[in-house]
């Protein structure tokens, strides 16, 4: 028997299960998401599960199971099952689905911390880090910036200058799998029972860091491509692993694009050190783009606020506003369509 408490099961989740219709069935946590099926950690071990037809066709993609979800399932063979329900999510990391206007994609749920991994080579991009931080904090998930491959030659003072507005908000770690002390410091930041998701581009060393933290090669890794100098997509799926006597780690495939799926664009001001300045603006609804007596614009002119941070704020805010507006319209259409379907069923006497 596996004690699911070490995977995060608690009294609150048990209460949620008791409120569900299939409360008499087994429960478990999604460990791996494949294309058409899921690996679920249960009290009886690892099971390969599929979804009921109602779940496949009755839910939008972002409501289908993701790594970290707690699900209820029915077994039909020794190591196989059918997922019939998902317990309500908390602290779910989303991103805007690539190629869409307002659709979002669930990356992981019941996440306590998110490690934003960048490598100290050409991959380092403070603007990309800001984008991840904005989405992570939106979901009430604690964030940390992991600057990996610190064994290469880099200008630390230059990096620290670029991230000073980030370092005052979240922890920053310089790590290398070749420097055991840096791995120990990172491991000590993970509390027993916490779920930590690793996000970032390909080739930054997410899987290698997970292996180093677990002190065993649980995940497949690969070297940087010699021909392109860029990271290969080693991880092709989201996968959860357990650290001995510690937390739960979720590795994710590298992403080239991380679109914001934020409903509250105003939250960006606090994340990017704009909110305190905005309190001194002449108008409470100042948009910081040209209004008279705008304290934010004055701070840019006086060198108090980095112009690049200000431009990043405007870009992310526009993106968040656009997503929020289009998602609101989509929800209105879905609600209207649902009413029509209900009325048609009522007219035809369908329950």
Secondary-structure blueprint:
Elements: H1 11-18, E1 26-33, E2 38-42, E3 45-51, H2 53-58, E4 70-77, E5 80-86, E6 93-96, E7 104-108, E8 113-119, H3 126-138, E9 142-148, H4 156-162, H5 164-167, E10 172-174, H6 180-188, E11 195-200, H7 206-214, E12 239-242, E13 248-251, H8 267-271, H9 275-278, H10 295-301, H11 307-347
What does this structure look like?
With 351 residues, this protein is an alpha/beta fold. The protein has three domains: 4-86, Beta Barrel (OB fold (Dihydrolipoamide Acetyltransferase, E2P)); 93-221 and 231-251, P-loop containing nucleotide triphosphate hydrolases (Rossmann fold); 267-344, Probable gtpase engc, domain 3 (Ribonucleotide Reductase Protein R1, domain 1, Orthogonal Bundle). It contains eleven helices and 13 strands. The protein is globular, with a radius of gyration of 22 Å. The two termini are 42 Å apart.
**Low-confidence residue ranges:** 224-233
Shape: globular
* CATH domain class name of the largest domain: Alpha Beta
At the fourth CATH level, what is the homologous superfamily of the largest domain? P-loop containing nucleotide triphosphate hydrolases
Count up the helices.
Answer: 11
Beta-strand level of the residues, as a percent range?
15-25%
Q: Please tell me how large the radius of gyration is.
A: 22 Å
Count of β-strands: 13
Describe the sheet with the most strands.
Answer: 6 strands, mixed
Give the N-to-C terminal Cα separation: 42 Å
Mean pLDDT: 87
Helical coverage, percent range:
25-40%
Class computed from helices, strands and strand pairing:
alpha/beta
Q: Which architecture name of the largest domain does CATH use?
A: 3-Layer(aba) Sandwich
N-to-C SSE series?
HEEEHEEEEEHEHHEHEHEEHHHH
Instruction: Enumerate the strands of the largest sheet in spatial order, edge to edge or round the barrel.
Output: 10-9-8-11-13-12
How many domain units?
Answer: 3
Question: What would the CATH topology of the largest domain be?
Answer: Rossmann fold
């Amino acid at each position: 028997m596996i004690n699911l408490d070490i995977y995060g099961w608690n009294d609150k989740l048990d209460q949620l299960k008791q409120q569900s219709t299939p409360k008499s069935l087994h429960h478990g946590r999604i460990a791996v998401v494949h294309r058409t099926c899921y690996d679920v950690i249960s009290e009886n071990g690892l099971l390969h599960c599929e979804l009921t037809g109602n779940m496949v066709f009755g839910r939008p993609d972002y409501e289908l199971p993701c790594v970290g979800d707690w699900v209820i399932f029915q077994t039909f063979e020794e190591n196989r099952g059918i997922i019939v329900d998902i317990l309500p999510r908390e602290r779910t990391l989303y991103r805007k689905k690539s190629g869409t206007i307002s659709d979002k994609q669930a990356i992981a749920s019941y996440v306590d911390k998110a490690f934003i991994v960048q490598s100290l080579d050409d991959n380092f991009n403070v603007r990309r880090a800001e984008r991840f931080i904005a989405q992570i904090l939106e979901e009430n998930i604690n964030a940390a910036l992991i600057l990996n491959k610190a064994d290469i030659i880099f200008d630390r003072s230059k990096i620290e200058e670029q991230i000073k507005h980030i370092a005052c908000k979240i922890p920053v770690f310089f790590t290398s799998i070749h420097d055991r002390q840096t791995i120990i410091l990172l491991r000590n930041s993970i509390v027993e029972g916490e779920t930590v998701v690793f996000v970032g581009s390909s080739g930054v060393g997410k899987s290698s860091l997970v292996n180093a933290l677990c002190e065993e090669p649980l995940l497949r890794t690969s070297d940087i491509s010699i021909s392109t100098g860029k990271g290969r997509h080693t991880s092709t799926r989201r996968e959860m692993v357990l650290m001995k006597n510690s937390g739960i780690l979720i590795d994710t495939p590298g992403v080239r694009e991380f679109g914001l799926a934020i409903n509250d664009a105003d939250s960006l001001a606090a994340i990017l050190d704009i909110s305190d300045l905005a309190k001194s603006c002449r108008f409470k609804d100042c948009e910081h783009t040209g209004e008279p007596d705008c304290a934010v614009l004055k701070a840019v002119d006086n060198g108090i606020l980095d112009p690049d941070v200000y431009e990043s704020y405007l870009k992310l805010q526009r993106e968040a506003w656009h997503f929020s507006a289009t998602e609101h319209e989509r929800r209105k259409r879905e609600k209207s369509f649902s009413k029509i379907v209900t009325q048609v069923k009522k007219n035809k006497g369908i329950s």
